[in-house]
Structure formats: structure tokens, C-alpha cells
């Protein structure tokens, strides 16, 4: 399997090269040349444990790492989870919740980033060399990426986050890590500013080569591939009840794009609901066909406070018939004007829809679900639950739970009127020494900080 850029100007890459490259040299995002079809293997795969299913899916996309080594990498990645099968499914009335917060940093990003850290170590050990990971985070990616690579001898990680716009606990999860290869920087700006800096760094090919830059954000294809597994897993587990629909709290579009891929791979996935907060660039697109950048709004679901969804380019590539010239034209128009209209129907209404949920509804949903079911939601998962209740589907509806409620105690406790949002690993962060820098939102400052780091 080779990997190609959405923009068509990068020679095809092996999987290992794609992992280390992150963003394609032509500024595009990497995708497989073809999508494997698992539809004829559903009966065989349905009874597999999560890790075994992951190996089967990865093996169809990865031909430069032996299957025995893949099996060991997957085992090592998921032994850090406190759930035996990685992504348990809980019933919530007539709906289900896919719990993706059982990893070391209590967020769905762990599912992919624990594996990605192992992949970085594996490839670099065999090839030699050093990697400087440059990451942007709106909250969860930073701590999950740090947990995946902390202590690795041949990897340094540099994390940018918007100053004052991640939850206090999310910031502590990053800035209290003592390993010398971990560097965190609060950026005076929004998460979109952080993403812009990342993209600018990777598009400067001289800088990228000189600093040996690598990516852990969802521009990295391995992130998306790892996320397809939990959609395949849940759809196979519940598929006997009918085709399975998913409501996904969505900011950067990577999580729901993985669900879209799982559907294209032949797993029994029905409808996909894009659930956003007040930063509603995606609901506007799926309603009108206009992808239009707006102002970033600060909400109680900060991981989704995004107005430029970095993975949306992958989806548009398929919507535009896998035509890199049309894709480049669309992305140039968006970069120049902040808006682009995609030809044809805006959405695929039989498959994908979108809706926005405001802060008041988030709080009401957290309170209502706690009172009715004794189940505590974080604000992002509450968006998924609230959105799911506005759609009728033929089979099971699964709400994707992206974070443990203890990561957002101020919002959750206020919503239910009790101090319930707690977790021992987060309580243990309080009082630990903090290491962080503060930077203006310009690439010169970021590069200077990276070059000055030990």
C-alpha cells in the first residue's frame, strides 16, 4: 500500500515514510491509494477482541512492518488502558455510548497516539535519526501525544496550545510532565493560530528538513487509521441490531472522517452525525455547501473551539471525485477568501448530517443524563448525546464519548450541582511543578524556542 497526497504533487510514500512525514511536502494530506474492503470478512471479524481487530485492519494498510511486529506494537500501545477491550460500549436508554477515555490521559486521542508513539520509536530505531514533533492542541492532543512519546531518546516533542483556552487540568496534564524531551508553549492566540503555525512550519521544506519535523496531529495518516478501528469494532458488536449510526463531537473532522472511512471499508456503518458547538463551520457546510471560516467562539467544550477543520481536506478530496486539481483550487480559494462552495450537493444526506449545540444545551444535557441514568458526561460527549436525540435512525445510535468528565470539573459539577467529576490521576497533578513557555503567534518565535530547547 502506498500513500498519496490530496494535492497530487508528492510521489507515493510507504506507510513508514507517511508516518514520519506527517503533512505531505506539497501541503496536502496523505491518503491510501485505495481503501481495502472488509465487507466479506464481517462474520470472521465480529468476534475479535479490539487489539486483534486492530491488527487485521492495520495489516491491510501496512506492508512494510511485519504482522508479528504490528501485533507487538498494538499490544504495547493498549496495555496502558484501564479497560480490557480498550473501547467499551455502554447502554444509555435507547442509545449507546462508545467510551474512548480509558487511556492514560483520559481522552480519545490516546487510542491513536499511544500507537503512534510506538510507531515512531519502531521506525526510528531501525532507520536511525532524530525527530522533532511539533503539535498543536486545543486540549487533549497535547497530553496524549506527550504520553505517547515521553522519554523516547530519539524524539523531542514541542506542543503549542492557546493561552488560557484549554481547561486547567488539560494544561496540567501537559506542563507537569518532567521528561526532558517534552516542551510546552502557551501561544497568545487561538487554536486556529496554533494550527496555522504548524502548517506554516511543515510547508517550509527547508525548515522541516533542518529541524527533522514530525506530526502527531490528525494530519498524520496513522492517527486517522488507528481511529477507524473503534468504529469498525462498535459497528460489528452492535451490527446484529441493524446498521449502526454514530454521533461524533467534531472540531478538526479527523474523528468523524475515520468513521467515514470505516463505512467506505464495508463495515456496517449507517448515518454519521457531525456534532459541533457554537463554532459551527461544519454544520453550515453540511446545510448550505459553503465552507466558511468565522470567528472562534470560546465555549465550555474547548477542544472543539475551531473554525478551520484540518482533516476536512481529506473529505473534500473524496467529495471532489479524488481530483487533486479541483481540491487544490478549492483550498486556495478558502485560504484566499475564507470561504469556498463545493460543487454538487453540500452533504450526503443519506449518510452524513450536522448540527450545532450551544453551551446552555450542553449543561442541560449533562444534568438530564445524570438525573435519568446516573451517567456523567463531559461537555464534548454531551454535545454528541444532545445532537443524537434530533435524529431517527434505523439501527443503533452510538454517541462517541471523547473525554472523561473529570477533565472538565468546573462545567460538569456546575451542571449537576455536585462535585462528581473526579479522577485519581488528575487529582495527583495538583501541586506538581509546571514547565511551560509563552510565545507570540508567529513562526519565528516558535522556531527560536525549538532551537533553544535542550
Describe this structure in words.
This protein has 454 residues and is α/β, with parallel strands linked by helices. The chain has a domain at 89-106 and 221-423: Rossmann fold (3-Layer(aba) Sandwich). Helix content is 44%, strand content 16%. It contains 19 helices and 15 strands. The protein has helices at 15-21, 42-46, 50-61, 67-78, 109-127, 140-149, 168-175, 191-203, 205-211, 221-238, 254-264, 281-288, 312-319, 324-337, 359-373, 379-388, 409-416, 424-427, 443-452, and strands at residues 3-5, 30-32, 89-92, 95-99, 131-136, 155-162, 182-188, 213-214, 244-249, 269-276, 290-292, 339-341, 352-356, 397-401, 437-440. It has a six-stranded mixed β-sheet with strand order 3-4-14-9-10-13, with helices on both faces. Helix 7 (168-175) links the parallel strand 6 (155-162) and strand 7. Helix 5 (109-127) crosses helix 10 and helix 10 (221-238) packs across helix 11 (254-264). The radius of gyration is 20 Å and the shape is globular. The chain starts with a strand and ends with a helix.
